[in-house]
Amino acid sequence: MSTLRARSSPRPGELWLSCPPYLLVARIVEVDDRRGPGVVSYELHDETGDLLDQVSDATLDDGWWQVFQPLIRRDG
Predict the structure, then answer these.
(1) Phi-psi region of 47 (alpha: psi -120 to 50; beta: other; left: phi over 0)
(2) Residue ranges of domains in the chain
(3) Selected residue with higher pLDDT from 13 and 65
(4) φ/ψ of residue 68, rounded to 5
(5) What is the Cβ-side half-sphere exposure of residue 67, based on CA atoms within 13 angstroms?
């Protein structure tokens, strides 16, 4: 039996964490899912919060979910 992997779409203002081996945070600026697979614009920050790059219109395809995962804040 195959299992479908649920994917949450990024939303403006959310933080997404890069998968290892890097520790980068993408702050979502804009999402446009009206065309094709959709595109996302984001600011890329390092672990200290310094802005490294601004990315516009990155395609929301399988590559996005291989590189980024939602940053889930936990209390405790």
Answers:
(1) alpha
(2) 15-70
(3) 13
(4) -120, 150
(5) 12
What whole-number percentage of the chain has pLDDT above 70?
88
Omega cis (within 30) before 21: yes
- Whose tokens are 């980068």? That residue is 24
- Say if CB 14 and CB 28 are below 8 A apart: yes
Distance CA 31, CA 37 (A): 11
Strand partners, 58: 40
Read off the pTM.
0.82
Q: Which pLDDT band holds residue 34 (cuts at 50, 70, 90)?
A: confident
Banded model confidence at residue 76, pLDDT cuts 50, 70, 90: low
34/19 Cα distance (integer angstroms): 27
